[in-house]
Every structure is written in C-alpha cells, then in structure tokens.
Amino acid sequence: MKKYIAILKGINVGGHKKILMAELRDLLTKIEEIDKVKTYIQSGNIIFSASGDSEAKLAQLIQKKILEHYGFEVSTLVLSEENFAAIIKNNPYAEVDIKRLHCTFFKTEPILENRQKLETFDASPDVFTTAEDCVYICCETERYSKSNINNSVAEKLLKINCTTRNWKTCIKLLEMTKSL
Predict the structure, then answer these.
(1) Superfamily of structural domain 2-83
(2) How far apart are CA 123 and CA 137, in angstroms?
(3) Domain of life of the organism in this record (predicted)?
C-alpha cells in the first residue's frame, strides 16, 4: 500500500459545499481501494493509503464518492507521498518565512502556451516560480488574500483547475503521511 495526499478544492468556504471531515473519513473508507484515512483541518486535506491505483484514478474514485453522497462535484487532486515530498523539497523559497509561502497545485498539466502566459505574468511585489506540477508563491506580505498571484489568476492563465494551500499545511500533510 502506498501513501497519498488528496486535496479537495472549494469545500467549506462561505457555507458552500459543506463536508464534515469525520463524515468524509467514513465515506472514503467505503472505497475498496482506500485505507487508513486521516484529514487535516476543514478545507479538504486527506491523507490515506491505497492499493496500486494511479493518482488520477484515486482522484476520480474520491470525486465520484463525494458526488454520490453529497450531490455536488468537488475537484480533487491526489499526489503520492513521493510526489508531494518532491514538491516540498524543490521549494525555491525555502529560506523565506513560511507564513509568506503558498503552493498552487495543478490538477492537470497546462499546455505550454498557457504555462508561458503564467510565467510572464507580473505579480509584483509578490514573486512566484512555476514548476512542472505547481506554482510556488512567495507573498511580499503575509496576506495571500491580497496577493497579485493567487489560485484564480493561475486558473485563468493556465486554463486548468488548481487548488492552493499555505506552506504550513503542505508541511503538515507530508508529516502526517509518516504516521499512517
């Protein structure tokens, strides 16, 4: 069994797409391929182990189960522990206070033309680095909500679904995989 991290987009925000984490854990354990489900905070961060399915297949299984149970779709991204650890390791802003760091994860790979649009976007005074499967964001202030580069901007330029987590959450998710 491999360890995985699933990140749900847009749940429990402003009273929309409400999902209780205890209920979600119980729901996901009903998926035959998934075991040892844990969640972190209310924004849809899930750690689990699973048999040899692909990340995309696991994301589809989770999305389908949520749709069947709650009646709404939730964009779901699944990364293996190894892939998530590589994202953490490759952070180009490792020396910066983590309160200023965020990571926007790509659900699918953007086409080159759209990636170039993002890479040439001026987010001053904030800075960012585009990687293969994410964007590392370093905010000039500690307020991501005021940043010129955010999830909406990334989605608009890349024309794909993305979801963002602060760096503290990213670190915690990776730590939690160790206890599975």
Answers:
(1) SP0830-like domains (3.30.70.1280)
(2) 10
(3) Bacteria
